[in-house]
Structures are given as structure tokens and as C-alpha cells.
Write a structure and sequence with these properties.
alpha/beta, 2 domains, nine-stranded mixed β-sheet
């Protein structure tokens, strides 16, 4: 039987990070409010938008008591904003809902049902259909992250090897498990590390139908090509010279998850060896990243006066 939320003890926290989202945030919020499952709260964390986003979100919050609107004084970056939402969530289930994507009306009902019935599943997600800026279909996308195996090493390896678009992070996740992770670190690709860490805690389940609609458009984060742009998006407080350390930071992130996760000694050592071998295979890329960082740090260490003298 469907119950309306008391607003104080909701079953799901639907968390909406947004920055300058006036083009799509209405559609995103409408798709949340159209859910056939009603026992949820909506938390909007506005990352200091400069467009009409605040007015739109406050309009929705005034209409529905399940919606809370909060605004950051400055743009803290997408990853710290996500982490902030995890801290604000009150429900046992957490649902990320990016402000430009859409959900089928049955997404929450289907995913919550799985988590209610299966304690071994930590993340249930809707299969993906890609859409364009106007909402027209671009075709179905197979995330290939239905991970039903009891083996944590098998799930971890599959999550890393199969991930491309990180759509599953917009599934429904057990909040207590999410809070056992390190959440999102301040570097590009940290969402991949987070999903891999979640896979260490339990199984992933995918719905049989496409219930999540990922919008692909020119201003989406996935369209950023330069490393310094990606770094500024995820966390502008981190210096741009660290932006290109992608391989290095990813492998360090994987190793860090293995030290935190509830693994047997055998599984922990098996996966540390697997990640170490991956790092060895990527040694040329990692070496170039570290050399680039060393050169950048050296240039910064040399004062302008010294640079001027050396050029005479």
C-alpha cells in the first residue's frame, strides 16, 4: 500500500544538485513530482546559480512541502555539492537526480521495491535511455552494471572495467552504505571510484526497462573536454595543475577504497594486487602525469625575477 510521506521520516531522499539549470530544472522537478511512489523528500542544493534557477526552485518549494531549497553562497563545485546533499539526506534511501535528467514515473517505485525485498542489494537503478536537449530519444544505453554476484572482488572489477557513463549513480542507494564510503573526492573520475566502492558493499540491480533518461547537451558536464575545465567543474578549489593526474588519482582512489571496505583478508589482498597490476600497466601514463606535475611545480617555485634573469 502506498503511503504519503510525513515529511519528517521519508523513505527516499531525492537530492538535486543544480547550477545555472534554468533550461531543464523544471522538467527534472516535474519528473520527480510525477513519481507513482510518493514517500520521499526533495532536497535542492543550488551551487550559487546566476540565472533564474533560484526563483524556479523556490517556486516549487512553495508549492510542495516535501521540497527543501538550499543555496550555497559560492560555487563549491559539483563533487562537494553532492557530498553536502548526502549529509542533508534524512531518508534510508538516497536518490541523486541531476537537474537536466529525467525519471520515468515508476523509477522510484521499482527501485525501492528491490531494496525493500533484497538486503543484499545496495544500489538499484533504472536502465538508461539517452535523450537530446529537446527530450528526443538518442537510443538506449546499456550500462552493463547489473552486478548480482556474491563475490565482492568480481563486482569491483566489473564495475571498473564496464563503467563509461556513470548513470548508475542516479539509481536508488542505501544511505547508510553511501555514508560508509569516502563519497566524491575532488578530482575528475571520482564518481567511478565511488561506484566501485559501493560495489564492494553489495550487489547492484538493474530494472528490466529504461526508466532513467540521461540528457546529452552542449552544456552538460560530459561535454567538457579539457582537464582544467573538468577540474574546475568538480571542485574549483583544487589547483588546475592537479587536473591531469587522472590515472594516478584513480588508482590511489581504488586502493583507498580497499582499505576501508568490509573485505576478508584474502579478498582485500586479491584486489590490491589487481589494482597494482593495473597501475603497472598504466605506468607510462602515470609517469607522464607525475613528470608534468613536477615541471609545473618547479615553474611555480621559480620566482618571476629568477625567470627573468634566466632568460637574459
Amino acid at each position: 500500500m502506498q503511503h504519503i510521506s510525513s515529511f519528517r521520516h521519508p523513505r527516499v531522499s531525492v537530492c538535486v544538485p543544480v547550477y545555472d539549470g534554468e533550461a531543464f530544472v523544471r522538467e527534472a522537478l516535474d519528473s520527480i513530482l510525477a513519481q507513482t511512489f510518493h514517500d520521499y523528500e526533495v532536497i535542492i542544493s543550488d551551487n550559487a546559480s546566476t540565472d533564474a534557477t533560484p526563483e524556479i526552485c523556490m517556486e516549487y518549494a512553495a508549492r510542495d512541502p516535501r521540497i527543501r531549497y538550499s543555496r550555497n553562497e559560492t560555487n563549491i563545485g559539483a563533487n562537494p555539492n553532492f557530498n553536502r546533499l548526502v549529509g542533508m539526506a534524512q531518508a534510508p534511501y538516497f536518490k541523486l537526480a541531476n537537474a537536466d535528467d529525467l525519471c520515468h514515473p515508476d523509477l522510484l517505485a521499482r527501485c525501492v521495491s528491490v531494496l525493500d525485498q533484497r538486503s543484499d542489494v545496495v544500489l538499484s537503478y533504472g536502465r538508461t535511455r539517452l535523450i537530446d536537449a529537446a527530450g528526443a530519444s538518442l537510443g538506449d544505453y546499456d550500462d552493463r552494471l547489473d552486478l548480482p554476484w556474491p563475490s565482492a572482488p568480481a563486482r569491483f572489477r566489473a564495475a571498473i572495467e564496464r563503467m563509461a557513463l556513470v548513470n548508475v549513480l542516479q539509481g536508488v542507494i542505501r544511505t547508510d552504505v553511501l555514508r560508509k564510503t569516502a563519497l566524491l573526492a575532488s578530482h575528475p573520475g571520482a564518481d567511478i571510484v565511488l561506484v566501485a566502492e559501493l560495489a564492494l558493499h553489495g550487489k547492484f540491480n538493474a530494472t528490466s526497462e529504461q526508466l532513467f533518461f540521461r540528457r546529452m547537451h552542449g552544456s552538460a558536464a560530459s561535454s567538457l573536454k579539457e582537464w582544467n575545465e573538468r577540474q574546475a567543474f568538480v571542485d574549483p578549489a583544487v589547483g588546475s595543475r592537479y587536473a591531469a593526474l587522472w590515472k594516478s588519482r584513480m588508482h590511489l582512489g581504488y586502493l583507498s577504497t580497499l582499505l576501508r571496505a568490509p573485505l576478508t583478508l584474502h579478498d582485500r589482498l586479491t584486489l590490491i594486487w589487481w589494482v597494482s597490476r593495473s597501475a603497472i600497466r598504466s605506468r607510462d601514463d602515470i609517469g607522464r602525469e607525475l613528470l608534468q606535475l613536477a615541471r609545473s611545480s618547479l615553474r611555480r617555485a621559480i620566482s618571476p625575477e629568477q625567470r627573468g634573469l634566466s632568460s637574459r
